[in-house]
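ok so i was messing around last nite and threw this chain in just to see what happens. nothing serious, just curious
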Amino acid sequence: MSEKARKTFVEGELTEGKLKKLQRELGDIINPNP
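result:
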């Protein structure tokens, strides 16, 4: 894997993780767990 491709892949993974975390936080606001 080229350096550029690896960097893009890692950034994509980080972004996906942040999105999942945000979705979970938003879900807690919209639909709080008891």
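not much to say yet. The first helix runs from residue 3 to 30.
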